[in-house]
Amino acid sequence: MLAIGDMSFATKKAALEHFRAVLGRSKVGETIDGPDHGQLLALLNRHPDALAKIGVGVAHFIVDVAAFGSRCFVVVRADGSSTDWSYRTAVAGVGRSLLEEFLAAARFEIAPEMQAFKREYFDRYESGMAPCQTTGQMISIHDAHVDHQPPHTFRAICDRFLDDEKMVPSYEWLSAPADNQHSCRFTNETLRQRFIDLHRRLADLQIVEASVNISAGSYGYRSATKEEAQRGLFDDP
């Protein structure tokens, strides 16, 4: 049982579904009020960076559009400043490791090419529906993920990059947490371009149904654990 404020959820998955629904029904830029406000405040207090996110105090919450069209919650503070925050991280109650931050940064850097690949695939089909390249099921672009085919899965490419560069994830070349950053990013342009070049050289991409990709996991060596799936570590950019 997971308690968040005066709410109780049987599982973390149930909590994620609840707050995903709040995110989905809230209009971008409008103040979230009523019961949703209190629920989000209780959830934010579970966030591992709650003190920094809350700052001088919470005035209200809004929904904003993050990188590449995804939605996120934003806390507007009493002094007018604001920052984004992840409801997934708050439900999990733990922050991402440096390795997970690196994986997020790597996904951020290749996201434009991944999205272009998806658009080009669906542009071939006038109906707007295209076949999942794993199941053959017709799907819309909104229900599709870009998948890395083995052996060069996304995680395998990331591991190869670290091996080639003989380095471990570090804030010396990754951005530290900051307001409204949305995602960790490469701060070293040379390393950023090397990763993009390696990905272009190795990645063999395909379009699959989102539920198939998330359930299989995109690390390649194994399926996503329940915790990793809940925290969004396998989401398509």
Automatic annotation (TrEMBL):
<dbReference type="Pfam" id="PF11523">
    <property type="entry name" value="DUF3223"/>
</dbReference>
<dbReference type="InterPro" id="IPR044673">
    <property type="entry name" value="DCL-like"/>
</dbReference>
<protein>
    <recommendedName>
        <fullName>DUF3223 domain-containing protein</fullName>
    </recommendedName>
</protein>
